[in-house]
Amino acid sequence: MSTYKIEEVKAVDASGAAQDVQVGYRPYLIQNAGETPVTFKEKDGVAATAENGFAVAAGATLPIVLTADTLSVFGGKANILFLQEG
Fold it and tell me: pTM to 2 decimals?
């Protein structure tokens, strides 16, 4: 089992429209930093919406290490926690 430490935190405000975040296949966690659900998905030519993404509840951190090239975030404020193994 790998252990990780937080290397960088990127704040994203996608309250009005979906925002793209370049991840570059680095491992990350997503944390909802707002008071409404945040939806995210890998950007595969289609931006995240409430219907096609994975929702994270207000104030929650999804406890699964993920990776993607580009992430699409929609619906509120989120922190992308970039991780480093070690």
Answer: 0.91
